Amino acid sequence: MANKEVTIKDVAKLAECSPTTVSRVINNSDHPVSKDTAEKVEAAIEKLNFSPNRIAQGLKSDKSNIIGVIVHDICDSYFAQMVKGIEEFISGHEYIVNIYNTSRSVEKELYAVSMLKANRADAVVFAGGALMDKEYEKKMYSIVEQLKGQGTVLLGVTPHPFDINNISLGNKKAAAIIADYLVENGHRKIAFIDGPEKLYTSYLRREGLKESLLKHDLDLEDELIFPGDFSFEGGRKAALKLLDKIDEITAVVGANDATALGLIWELNNQGIKVPSDISVVGIDDLPEAKYSYPPLTTISLPIHQLGTNIGKYLLESLTSDQITDLINIEMQLIKRKSVKKLG
Amino acid sequence: MANKEVTIKDVAKLAECSPTTVSRVINNSDHPVSKDTAEKVEAAIEKLNFSPNRIAQGLKSDKSNIIGVIVHDICDSYFAQMVKGIEEFISGHEYIVNIYNTSRSVEKELYAVSMLKANRADAVVFAGGALMDKEYEKKMYSIVEQLKGQGTVLLGVTPHPFDINNISLGNKKAAAIIADYLVENGHRKIAFIDGPEKLYTSYLRREGLKESLLKHDLDLEDELIFPGDFSFEGGRKAALKLLDKIDEITAVVGANDATALGLIWELNNQGIKVPSDISVVGIDDLPEAKYSYPPLTTISLPIHQLGTNIGKYLLESLTSDQITDLINIEMQLIKRKSVKKLG
DNA sequence: AATTTGATGGAAAACATTTTCCAAAGTCAA
DNA sequence: TTGACTTTGGAAAATGTTTTCCATCAAATT
Which residue in A14, A255, B119, B129 could disulfide with B104, CB within 3.0 to 4.6 Å? Predict the structure, then answer.
C-alpha cells in the first residue's frame, strides 16, 4: 500500500514547472531545457525520492519491459544456469525477467504464455517441454501461435520447424562425439540410459548415438537402451536393471550427467568398478560431474554461456533494430576418468 | 512489435456495446449485464483473441502484480528450491515473479530494489546478502527504507531487527542440534568449516555450534575453525588444511552441505575414511547429500516448503486483508552414515 | 523596423483500462 | 396514472506518463 504515490505532477509543482518539463529532464529528451530548471527538477526528484512509474510509461510506450522465461525446472542445474545467464544480461538493462516453472506440463506452459501475453511481454524464452506426441504437438502449435511476432526464442522445442528463432542445442552432435570417442577407445558393446520418454531431447541424444555408432558398423541394440528420466534416481534404477547384462557391455552412456552420476553411484554401490569393469559417460558437464568416483567423462554444453548469449541477443533485438547473429555455443568432450581404453 | 493491439474498444465495437460493458463482463462486476449482451461480448473476445492489457489495468488499479524475488544465486540448490516454492504458489495466481540474482553484491541488491520500486512491485522477497559489516549495514538500511510499507519478506537478512517481516531460518538451532548429536555420540574435539566471511548466516551457524558446545563444557577452538565459502570447492580446500590436525579431531561440521560434501570428497581422496577416521556433518539436506560416500548426516531445512509458505503468505496478505500467521518450517536431523559413535 | 530563428516551456491529447455517475426503460404497487 | 424501484447501459473522468502542437521571448538577420 504505497502511501499515495509520488507522481511527476508533484515533482512539477515543487520544481515550479510543468509535468512536460519534468518528463523532458527524466528522459533527457532532445527538446532543450534550461540548465536552471533542469537543476530544480533534479532537486525536486531527489527530495521527493521520485521514480517514474514504469507501468504508466509502459502504457504510453506499449512496452512492458518484461521478458518471460519458461523452463521445465529451475532447480535443475541445467536450466538454473541458463536462467542465470539470461538474468545477468537482461536485468541490468532495466528489464524484468519473469520466470515460469512448468514441470513439463502443457497446461502450465499454456498458462505461462497467456500470462505473458496479457502482460504484453516484450520477449519470451521458451525452454519448455518438447514432447514427441501428437496431442502435445497440437497444443504446442497453439502456444507458438500466441508467441509469434514477439521477440522470442524457442529452445530445441519440437521436431517441427516454426518460423521463430528455434535454437538447436547440438544434442545429436554431443552424442555423436561420445560415440566416436568410445569406439576409438575400443568399445563395441555400448548401452544407453534414455531420457524421459517422448522428450525430444531424449530422442535427439539417442538417435545421435545410434546414427554415429552405425557409421562404425555398430548397433545400439534395443535391449541395451534402458529407460531413464534425466534424474540421479533414474540413473540408479537403470544401473540395477543393467546388472544382468553387465558382462557383455563395456560402456554405457547416460542421456545426461545426472543419470550418469546416478549410474556410477549405484554401480559403486553394487561393487562394480568404473571404469575398470565398465565405462560411463554423460552429457552436460554439470558442476558436480568432476566430483564423482571416478570423475565423469562428459560433454560440456556451456549452458550458462548460452543464457548470456540469449540475453544479449534479445537485448539487441529489442533495442537496436539491427539483425544480430545466431546464437552459438561450442561443445567439448571433457575427458576425465570414467572411460577406460580397451585392448 | 504487436501488430496493433486489440483493445477493449475493438471488442465493444464488434459486440455492439460500450467499453464499459465489456469491462463489466471481463471482470464479472456487480453491475448487471444481460445474458444476451454478455454472450455477444464473450463471442467478440473469443473472435478477436482479446486479452485485457494488464499494464493498463495496473495503471488504473495501482497494482503491478509483480512480486520481486532477490536472491544471491539461483544456481545454488538452496535458493533454487526456495524460488521454485514461491513460484509454484504465486505464478498460478496471476502474479509475475521477477527474479534478481545479486551474487551478494550490494550494488546489485540496490539496483534490484530500485527496479522493483520503479515497477511498483506489489511485494518483494529479499533473501539477500546479510553481511555483518558496518558499510554494508548502512547500505542495507537504505535498501530496507525503500522496501518499507510494501508487502515484503526479509529472509534472515541482517542482525538488526527491521520492522518488516524478517524471517529467521533457525540457523542457530540447526547448529545446536548437531552439537548435541555429536556430543551424544562421544565426540569431544570438533572442528568447523565456516561459511563466507562476514555473512550473517555463517555467524549464526558458527555461534550456534559454539554456544551449544559450551553447554556441554566443550570449546569450539579458534584454530579448529577453518575458513570456507559455502561451496564444494571451499570444503575441499578446508579438508586439505584440516589434514594437520586430523589426529586430534574426531568430528567436523560443515557450515552447509556443499562444504561438507566437498570435505568428504577430498578426505576420501586423501585416503581418510569417513566416518571411521573422522565424522562429518552438514546443514541443509541438499538432494545430493544422500549420495556422498558415505551418505551425509545433516539437518534438513525444508527450503522448498519455506518458499511455498512465503508464497502463500504473500498471496494472502495481498488479496485478503486478514493478517496471516508467521511462516514456520520444521527442521530435522537426518541421520545417515557420516557420523560414527565413539567409545 | 520587420522578420526570422532558436531556445524554452506549457496545454492537451493519447495510451487501455476501470469507475463513478447518470439515463432510459420496464415493472410494480398504490 | 403516478411514483418508486430495478435492470441495463453509456459518457466521461481518472490513473501517470509521453508526445504533439503551440506560445512566448529574446536574439539575430534582413
Answer: B129
Q: How far apart are the first and last CA of chain A?
A: 73
Domain assignment present for residue B120? The answer is yes
- What is the arrangement of strands in the sheet containing B96-101, beginning at the earlier edge strand? A165-167, A151-155, A123-127, A66-71, A96-101, B96-101, B66-71, B123-127, B151-155, B165-167
On whether both B199 and B266 belong to a single domain, the answer is yes
Q: What pLDDT sits at residue A1?
A: 35
**Residues 24-63, chain A: which have Cβ under 7 A from strand C?**
31-37, 56, 59-60, 62
Distance B60 CA to C13 C1' (A): 18
> Between the CA of B300 and the C1' of C30, what is the distance in angstroms?
76
Instruction: Render pLDDT for B148-200 as a digit per residue (tens, 0 to 9).
Output: 766 788 886 666 667 777 777 889 999 999 999 999 999 999 999 999 999 98
Q: What CA–CA distance (Å, rounded) separates B301 from A213?
A: 46
Mean pLDDT of A76-88: 93
A45 and A87 fall within a common domain: no
Total domain count, chain B: 3
Kindly state whether residues A163 and A191 are assigned to the same domain. Answer: no
Residue A107 lies in a domain: yes
Based on the domain organization, do B186 and B254 belong to the same domain? yes
Question: Which residues have CB under 8 Å from A249's CB, separation 6+?
Answer: A189, A190, A191, A224, A242, A278
In whole angstroms, give the CA distance from residue A60 to residue B55: 10
Q: Is residue B252 situated within a structural domain?
A: yes
**Could you check: is the Cβ of residue A33 within 7 Å of any atom of nucleic acid strand D?**
no
* Residues spanned by the domain of A31: 8-52
Q: CATH number, domain at A27?
A: 1.10.260.40
**Which CATH number fits the domain that encloses residue B245?**
3.40.50.2300
Subunit contact B53:A118, Cβ cutoff 8 A: yes
Q: Is the CB of A60 under 7 A from strand D?
A: yes
Q: Is A85 left (phi over 0), alpha (psi -120 to 50) or beta?
A: alpha
Selecting from A51, A99, A119 the residue whose C-beta is nearest the C-beta of B118 gives A51
Q: Which residue of B has its CA nearest to A83?
A: B74
Region A125-148: what's the mean pLDDT?
A: 83
Closest residue by C-alpha to C1' distance, nucleotide D6: B32
How is residue B283 written as a grid cell? 546443514
Residues of chain B with pLDDT under 50: 1-2
Share of chain A above pLDDT 90, in %: 74
Same domain, yes or no: B157 and B233: no
Nearest residue to D12 via alpha carbon and C1'? B20
Which bases of strand D sit closer than 7 A to a protein CB? 7-12, 14-21
Whether A33 has its CB under 8 Å from any CB of chain B: the answer is no
